[in-house]
């Protein structure tokens, strides 16, 4: 094996870096690789580089230049933000028989396919499963899907890789928006924000809304508003509205539930609330949690993997979470120093600078190329 391993990671620059965790994951992975002496890594992009001006220009290459030439010196291409069909994968391997094509599977393929099997009847916007992959990488929270993913992609090599995070994007927002992070903790500390994308059952606003309802029954009038960030897409959903109009927070509180546009995390915290209530199913590693803990704002969540951080409740236990909200309003300031110290352990474990994470990726990549 040659001394320097050349790696490309695909990314779509047409998508905002603050629109979803995938875009940030791609950048984190490239930054982890660029700090490894034997690796030479690039972001293979399509779209407008101006949205990513904060990245080093020499670390980015247009993917069309790679696909339209008969010269290909990459050892490994990791498909993340852009996928390739079987014809293109085969062409890349014809040009360079030694190249390895990896899919980094950041989402839950099982949940995705279940949802689409029930609710979608139009194949025009759905990509068929890729063929010709040398491996599929999966994240710890989706490792239980390995056998399904193996069958779905007809790929024998399914590898679990570390979940990584960095404060790069959150610090970028703080600097650009000139925000005093210490003010965020208590600025809107009587307003709830729910930041689930509401695209599938996995990350949805329903349970957090019912938690706000349960707390209103325990401590009426203590919370000023419940803001559903990114909720504009569902505010006219008749079934959701039929549930909401039965609640006290609708019947007894004026303009309490508010559906907001989707926006970057820091904008939501700055303008709409500093108490984050989250709910997920089989998706318990989420950059939302890391960013909230990094800012030291109250986070109520049901992630078993992160149960020792923030305020944890089991499954769908809305009464338990309502009591956590009560405790936050009464004691959060007193517990803040302890929370800060404890969160550092989490950041260190998942850091792109953590030597164990680097070793894991080095071992996985070198085993692919041996």
Could you characterize the architecture of this molecule?
The chain is of the alpha/beta class and 370 residues long. It has two domains: 5-165 and 352-369, Rossmann fold, CATH 3.40.50; 179-350, Rossmann fold (3-Layer(aba) Sandwich). The chain has 14 helices and 13 strands. The strands form two sheets. It has a seven-stranded parallel beta sheet, sandwiched between helices. A six-stranded parallel beta sheet has the order 10-9-8-11-12-13, sandwiched between helices. It starts with a strand and ends with a helix. The mean pLDDT is 91.
SSE blueprint:
Blueprint: E1 5-12, H1 21-34, E2 39-46, E3 60-62, H2 63-67, E4 76-79, H3 86-95, E5 100-105, H4 109-119, E6 135-138, H5 146-153, E7 158-160, H6 168-177, H7 181-187, E8 191-194, H8 206-218, E9 225-229, H9 238-244, H10 248-251, E10 257-260, H11 265-272, E11 275-277, H12 287-294, E12 299-301, E13 311-312, H13 318-350, H14 355-369
Parallel strand pairs: 1-2, 1-4, 2-3, 4-5, 5-6, 6-7, 8-9, 8-11, 9-10, 11-12, 12-13
Helix pairs in contact: 8-13
């Amino acid at each position: 094996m040659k001394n320097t391993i050349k790696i490309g990671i695909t990314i779509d620059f047409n998508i905002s870096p603050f629109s979803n965790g995938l875009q940030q994951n791609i950048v984190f992975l490239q930054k982890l690789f660029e700090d490894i002496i034997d690796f030479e890594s690039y972001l293979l992009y399509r779209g407008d580089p101006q949205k990513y001006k904060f990245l080093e220009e020499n670390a980015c290459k247009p993917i069309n230049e790679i696909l339209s030439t008969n010269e290909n010196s990459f050892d490994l291409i990791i498909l993340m933000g852009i996928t390739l069909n079987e014809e293109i994968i085969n062409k890349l391997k014809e040009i360079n028989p030694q190249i390895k094509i990896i899919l980094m599977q950041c989402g839950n393929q099982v949940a995705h396919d279940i949802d689409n099997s029930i609710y979608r009847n139009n194949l025009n916007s759905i990509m068929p499963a890729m063929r010709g992959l040398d491996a599929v990488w999966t994240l710890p929270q989706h490792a239980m899907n390995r056998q399904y993913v193996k069958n779905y992609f007809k790929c024998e090599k399914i590898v679990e890789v570390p979940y990584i995070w960095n404060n790069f994007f959150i610090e970028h927002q703080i600097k650009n928006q000139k925000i005093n992070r210490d003010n965020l903790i208590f600025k809107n500390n009587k307003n709830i924000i729910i930041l689930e994308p509401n695209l599938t059952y996995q990350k949805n606003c329903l349970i957090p809304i019912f938690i706000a309802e349960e707390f209103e029954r325990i401590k009426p009038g203590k919370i000023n508003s419940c803001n559903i960030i990114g909720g504009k897409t569902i505010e006219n959903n008749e079934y959701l509205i039929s549930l909401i109009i039965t609640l006290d927070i609708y019947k007894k509180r004026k303009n309490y539930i508010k559906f907001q546009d989707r926006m970057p995390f820091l904008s939501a915290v700055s303008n709409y609330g500093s108490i984050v209530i989250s709910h997920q199913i089989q998706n318990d590693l989420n950059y939302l949690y890391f960013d909230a803990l990094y800012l030291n704002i109250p986070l109520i969540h049901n992630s078993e993997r992160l149960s020792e951080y923030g305020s944890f409740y089991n499954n769908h236990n809305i009464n338990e979470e309502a009591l956590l909200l009560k405790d936050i309003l009464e004691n959060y300031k007193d517990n803040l120093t302890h929370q800060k110290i404890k969160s550092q352990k989490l950041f260190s474990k998942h850091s792109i600078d953590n030597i164990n994470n680097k070793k894991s990726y080095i071992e996985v990549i070198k085993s692919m190329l041996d």
